[in-house]
Amino acid sequence: MVRCTSAFVPQSAVRRKSYSKPNGGSVPSMPAHVDAPERLPQPSVAEMDLPIVLDALSDPIRLAILHRYLVDAAGGERSCGWVGIDRPKSTLTHHFRVLREAGLLEQHLEGLTRISRVRIEDVQQRFPGLLDLVLDWQVPAALLRDGIES
């Protein structure tokens, strides 16, 4: 499975138990609980800016990512590796970040995996009809890995 990025869980988010040694010391153990990670930074609906959104959609790879999430994931949550775009992991990480920072995608971490979904309601509220244009777009086959159809 392809993962977009690895995640570092800060020590402040981990609660640890300690066990006593027979000689009186304590030994740290596995975390008792890891707090649920917060969603990665994204603009509010009011902060979504049309030039930034259009710039994010001006790249065919980012347009293909958004199209795959809308069509094949039916707007649901999927990992970044699921998208099936034939590009290096570092390149895809960059494209996902641009889409998130434009307000088109929402992302959160589950372990070491970034999970993404299209912010359909927010985008429709701010820019009615924009996602319909993305849905109508045909993804070039050259962008997709073998065996994946748009």
Show the helix and strand layout.
Blueprint: E1 14-20, E2 26-34, H1 50-57, H2 60-71, E3 78-79, H3 89-102, E4 105-110, E5 113-118, H4 120-126, H5 130-136
Helix pairs in contact: 1-3, 2-3
Average the pLDDT over all residues and give the rounded result. 77
**Shape label:** globular
Task: Write down the Rg.
Answer: 19 Å
Annotated CATH architecture = Orthogonal Bundle
The level of helicity is 25-40%
Structural class of the secondary elements?
A: alpha+beta
Q: SSE string, helix = H, strand = E?
A: EEHHEHEEHH
User: What strand line-up does the widest sheet have?
Assistant: 3-5-4
Instruction: Tell me the count of domains.
Output: 1
Would you identify the CATH H-level superfamily?
Winged helix-like DNA-binding domain superfamily/Winged helix DNA-binding domain
Number of helices: 5
Instruction: Give the CA-CA distance, first to last residue.
Output: 21 Å
Structure summarized in a few sentences:
This protein has helices at 50-57, 60-71, 89-102, 120-126, 130-136; strands at 14-20, 26-34, 78-79, 105-110, 113-118. With 150 residues, it is of the alpha+beta class.
